[in-house]
Amino acid sequence: MIRAGGLSRFAACPRRTLARTRMKGYTSPMRRKDREINDPHEILAIIARCKVCRLALSDDGAPYIVPLNFGYTCESDTLRLYFHSAAGGRKLDILKRNNRACFEVDCDHGLIEADRACGYGFAFSSVIVSGTLEILETDEEKIRGLNALMKHQTGGDTAFSYGEADLRSVTVLQMTAAGFTGKVKKF
């Protein structure tokens, strides 16, 4: 499942500190222990294979979910996810009232066929991350987030540059992981 060379970028995230975490109010024990992923490097490899996530927020008790491109870093034992946004809109309005969020990615999809309808299934790998969102304010913070996003989306280490107008017109969000889980159903 893990691609060759795919873990070198996670060297700064030791196994002991990236172990699956639970935070009160965020996660509960996984019912299907046979599908649970406990290896944090496998969880990060799933995140690396995905280009689009779903970001879930709570709008005064009502769920709100939006698909987004994302980037991420894993430094100093902390997983951080980055998103870009326009300067205004529902997502930012919600964030100002409630910065708790949930991030979901899934990949490795495939139909598992059977002889009877109720025997069918679906293969997948998925990760759910819970944490808090913040709006990055300084140009340095925005550039760090945009570079993580561009690196993940393009697969390269190209040095990107951003003009002053670019940095003024974009909102960059950072989600710091408080807990995460991984789950897989194989063919």
Word description of this protein:
With 187 residues, the chain is of the alpha+beta class. The protein has one domain (15-185): Electron Transport, Fmn-binding Protein, Chain A (Pnp Oxidase, Chain A). It contains four helices and eight strands. It has helices at residues 40-49, 90-97, 139-154, 164-169, and strands at residues 36-37, 52-59, 62-69, 71-75, 78-85, 100-112, 121-136, 171-185. Strands 1, 2, 3, 4, 5, 6, 7 and 8 form an eight-stranded antiparallel β-sheet that branches. A hairpin with a 2-residue loop joins strand 2 and strand 3.
Descriptive tags:
single chain; 187 residues; alpha+beta; Pnp Oxidase, Chain A; 8-stranded antiparallel sheet; 8 strands; 21% helix; disordered N terminus
